[in-house]
Amino acid sequence: MSYETILVETIGAVTRITLNRPQALNALNSAVLRELIAAFRAFDADATQRCAILTGSEKAFAAGADIKEMQGQSFADMYGGNFFYGYEAVTATRKPWIAAVSGFALGGGCELAMMADFIIAGDNAKFGQPEIKLAVTPGMGGSQRLTRAIGKAKAMEMCLTGRMMGAVEAEAAGLVARVVPAAELQAEALKSAEAVAAMAPLAAMAAKEMVNAAFETTLAQGINFERRLFHGLFGSADQKEGMAAFVEKRPGVWSGQ
Ligand code: HXC
Question: Is 106's C-beta closer than 6 angstroms to any atom of ligand 1?
Fold first, then answer.
């Protein structure tokens, strides 16, 4: 499939999706929405692909939802049309994916990065929910995911003042997994994605599912859910292979079964 607002490449078992509207700092409009959903669905359906990276340019991961597209919309357009509802589809991706963030990740851009399984940030990354300055609020999950990631104090401050948070603060606060020099971001993200892609795919999918369950369940339910998935992996050929490979002191070779 050909895309106009994103670039999609496959690098071995890794799919890299690059937001590509440089003239608008990768602002997220409806075309980006449609294409991202299609690209993530295609990645999930492709048996040769094991992990994805979502990234932007060096200056901007994404500077938010497209303000020029939203500017003239009425309440009926937004509420009636359930504006940007479809973005949740990227969180339905069952295989792991990483956001590689350089430069601005603001508003919808920050919200999109937070939909990733984890974020690797360049040391030039700036995260923020500046919607309040436009007399609106986060609308793609920012008030919820940011609060869960960094706690009420910082999330509330960011949503109320619109201030940006740099990469070092974002790592200390728990928003990003790792900060790397901006010039090494793509190489580091690829290394991480290749490490994930090298794991037995059913185990990777299960690990993602159980960590995400921590946000939706009580502790007891979450632990039970984890245990059932853990038990279930003993029905996979790759569990037999993984443990035999350890005992025989050789690398495992996964069938994905
Ligand atoms: C549309 C945008 C844009 C955006 C930047 N551009 N952000 N266009 N929507 N969100 C455009 C500018 O209009 C400009 O185009 C070009 O990109 C370069 O931007 P500049 O402002 O000239 O760059 P700079 O001076 O370096 O400033 C960078 C910036 C600033 C600090 C990131 O662009 C900025 O504040 N952007 C808006 C950030 C924001 O408020 N995001 C939240 C949006 S609301 P032209 O053609 O004019 O030169 C949101 C809601 C989410 O995300 C919920 C959805 C449901």
Answer: yes
Q: Which residues of the chain have pLDDT under 50?
A: none
The pLDDT score that the predictor gives to residue 87 is 84
Contact 35, 2 (CB under 8 A): no
- The response to whether residue 66 sits with its C-beta less than 6 Å from ligand 1 reads yes
* C-alpha torsion angle, residues 117, 253, 15, 119 (rounded to 10): 20
- Mean pLDDT of the chain, nearest integer: 97
- What CA–CA distance (Å, rounded) separates 144 from 200? 31
Please indicate whether residue 65, judged by its CB atom, sits closer than 6 Å to ligand 1: yes
For residue 236, the tally of other CB atoms under 10 A from its CB is 19
- Given the residues 39, 63, 65, 100, select the one marked as catalytic: 65
CATH number, domain with residue 20: 3.90.226.10
Report the distance separating Cα 126 and Cα 164, nearest Å. 6
- What's residue 192's pLDDT? 98
The model's pLDDT over 53-86, given as tens digits with 9 standing for 90+, comes to 999 999 999 999 999 999 999 999 999 988 888 8
Q: What is the end-to-end Cα distance of the chain in Å, rounded?
A: 28
Q: State in Å: Cα 14 to ligand 1 middle.
A: 30
Q: Domain for residue 107, yes or no?
A: yes
111 is catalytic: yes
Q: What is the ipTM of this complex?
A: 0.98
Catalytic residue among 39, 56, 62, 111: 111
Q: Is the pTM of this model over 0.90?
A: yes
Q: Which atom of ligand 1 is nearest to the CA of 24?
A: 17
Cα–Cα distance between 90 and 96 in angstroms, integer?
11
State which residues form the domain around 84: 6-197
Give the domain-ending residue among 159, 177, 197.
197
